[in-house]
Design a protein that fits this description.
The protein has helices spanning 2-8, 11-36, 42-60, 64-84, 90-111, 117-124, 132-151, 153-161, 163-168, 173-195, 201-211, 218-243, 247-273, 285-293. With 294 residues, it is mainly alpha-helical. Helix 2 (11-36) runs parallel beside helix 7 and helix 4 packs antiparallel against helix 5. The longest helix is centred in the C-terminal third of the chain and has 27 residues, at 247-273. The termini are far apart.
Length: 294
């Protein structure tokens, strides 16, 4: 507790904790739908797009946040459009845009400022990078994401598992896909300040995959993912402060440890029950009833 009190005595660490907790919560909740829809690598792709936009902004002397957010949102919308029409598979589209944006960012950086401290912090993350503006945006983002899951839970559930069924029940699937993509894009831009372009996708992927080891209902995975994302971030920050390790890397290592722990618990549970547990499915009775009520 003494170490935690010492951490909270530094204003930049308080900003990092508050902003990081909110971004981790948003990323873990959105990550459940993204992983189940096989868009788990969209975080990595959009982070590279954000790095390209940030490199151009730094080189031109513009505000990095004001440039990167609209660019990444447009990239997310573009990814959705080309995959919805079936012209390019989602993994190929993400890889194409990711590589192109990263290449542009590297070229712009090498021709202008070089690998300055600002660019390096966006690439690999910096605990000092979280500003008051970032925290304010994180608060707004978390309110929107939590509101989306609380108010539109049944629709998100339907869109995640079966878009054709969702359309048949009158759900505007395209609108929900665009909304999730936009919120993911903003989460990526804010999270990059601390995690870096190379590690930000872990906040999206790890909590969802870890929760799926033990929980087999959509609601259980969503709740577990949100809690895991926040807890792993807090433990990672404490480790970073205690051992003077990079914050982003410490958070990823804690998430990896949680994944291995949950995987071990899953194997132990299977061994005790003598059989396989059912895969995560939309066919749980409670959730089917929720859809019928909707």
């Amino acid at each position: 507790m003494e170490m935690v009190r010492e951490m909270l005595s530094y204003p930049f660490l308080v900003r990092a904790l508050v902003g990081g907790i909110l971004v981790s919560l948003c990323a873990s909740l959105l990550g459940v739908s993204l992983v189940l829809k096989r868009y788990s690598m969209i975080g990595d792709g959009l982070s590279h797009v954000s790095f390209g936009a940030l490199s151009i902004a730094v080189a031109a002397g513009w505000s990095p946040l004001k440039v990167s957010i609209p660019v990444v949102v447009l990239a997310a919308f573009f990814l959705l459009r080309i995959t919805e029409h079936g012209k390019i598979k989602s993994d190929a589209a993400i890889a194409m845009i990711s590589a192109a944006a990263l290449a542009i960012g590297i070229i712009v950086t090498s021709m202008t400022t070089g690998m300055t401290t600002d660019v390096s912090s966006y690439m690999f993350g910096s605990i000092l990078a979280m500003s008051r503006t970032d925290v304010s945006l994180s608060v707004i983002l978390s309110v929107v994401v939590l509101g989306l899951f609380l108010i539109c839970y049944n629709k998100i559930f339907a869109v995640t598992f079966d878009e054709n069924f969702a359309r048949a029940t009158g759900v505007n699937v395209s609108w929900y896909n665009v909304l999730i993509a936009i919120l993911t894009a903003i989460t990526i831009v804010l999270g990059m300040r601390m995690m870096g372009a190379m590690l930000i996708s872990s906040l999206i992927i790890f909590p969802a995959l870890t929760s799926m080891r033990l929980f087999k209902s959509f609601r259980g995975v969503v709740l577990s993912s949100g809690v895991l994302g926040v807890v792993c971030f807090c433990i990672g920050m404490v480790m970073s402060y205690r051992f003077s390790t990079p914050a982003g890397a410490s958070v990823v290592v804690v998430n990896l440890a949680a994944f291995l722990l949950f995987t071990g618990a899953e194997w132990a549970l299977k061994f005790r029950t003598g059989g396989k547990k059912p895969e995560l499915s939309e066919n749980t009775e409670a959730e089917r009833q929720q859809q019928q009520d909707e």
